[in-house]
Specification:
Pfam family, one: MotA_ExbB
Shape: elongated
Helix content: over 70%
InterPro entries: Flag_MotA_CS (IPR000540), MotA-like (IPR047055), MotA_ExbB_proton_chnl (IPR002898)
Subcellular location: Cell membrane
Mean pLDDT: 85
Family: Belongs to the MotA family.
Number of helices: 11
Protein name: Flagellar motor protein
Length: about 270
């Protein structure tokens, strides 16, 4: 679970509710027709904008902003370095069984391509093509929430206009103007809070997660090609550490056999 997302949305709604309670009863902010106009209008307009399959996955896509586990790049680099060490000692075919134990399907695919003897140019082409389509699929989910964030305030304003029209009909009854104006403005309130506290933050979170995933997969591509080229594991490590922040680099370690263990021949002495 992403604690920042949960904390953000819970504290955001909590502060808004607190402010509402300080000004009066929550009943003042509840109006069923306004909910139908704002929420219903936003969902139906989004449905018109996207295929049915994509729209029905909206909850699944939103879940990724709260519960998706972000890959640990430092641990991925450690795995790649171990693979590079084993490949230099035993050959690329020795990685065949190790690939089965990998949890990352992208890394697993890259290692299998290398084990199967695919040329480096084709390995890069296949992995970069898959990476491009992953990024494109992610953009669909991001754009859907951005669309909802644009529609919600618009339908909130539409509800306000409807309420004002209904209020103007009762101008001959001054006691109804105040309550009517309050109800008319509630729809704008609904649209603003949905857009700025739900839809747009989710879109930004998905965008950041997608960028991070693409970044990690780019590091994996470089690591897989280094394994195939037979690069020294220490060189592989240093190359991939450039993808990490200084703090993250502290979690990257070398295989135990190359840390000066007595009786072990270090492969890093070869280059």
């Amino acid at each position: 679970m992403d604690r920042a997302s949960v904390l953000g949305i819970v504290s955001g709604f909590g502060l808004v509710l607190w402010a509402m309670l300080m000004g009066g009863s929550l009943k003042l902010f509840w109006d069923v027709p306004s909910v139908l106009i704002t929420v219903g209008g936003t969902l139906t307009a989004t449905l018109m904008s996207y295929p049915m399959e994509t729209f029905l996955d909206v909850l699944k896509i939103a879940k990724n902003a709260f519960f998706s586990k972000e890959p640990d790049l430092s641990e991925t680099i450690n795995t790649i370095v171990r693979f590079a060490d084993k490949a230099r000692r035993e050959g690329l075919l020795a990685l065949d069984q190790d690939a089965d134990a990998l949890e990352d399907p992208f890394l697993q695919k890259g290692v299998r391509l290398v084990v199967d003897g695919t040329t480096p140019e084709l390995v890069r082409s296949i992995l970069e093509t898959e990476l491009a389509f992953v990024a494109e699929r992610h953009k669909v989910g991001q754009s859907m929430f951005e669309t909802m964030g644009a529609f919600a305030p618009a339908f909130g304003m539409l509800g306000t206009l409807i309420g004002l029209i209904q209020m103007l009909v009762t101008l001959d009854q001054p006691e109804k103007i105040g309550p009517g104006m309050a109800v008319a403005l509630v729809t704008t309130f609904y649209g603003s809070i949905l857009a700025n506290l739900v839809f747009l933050p989710i879109a930004n979170k998905l965008k950041n997660r997608s960028a991070r995933e693409v970044f990690i997969k780019e590091a994996i591509i470089e690591g897989v090609l280094s394994i195939q080229a037979g690069d020294n594991p220490r060189i592989v490590q240093e190359k991939l550490k450039s993808f990490l922040s200084p703090k993250e680099r502290e979690r990257v370690s070398m295989p135990s056999r190359v840390k000066g263990v007595p009786g072990s021949e270090s492969p890093f002495d070869a280059k």
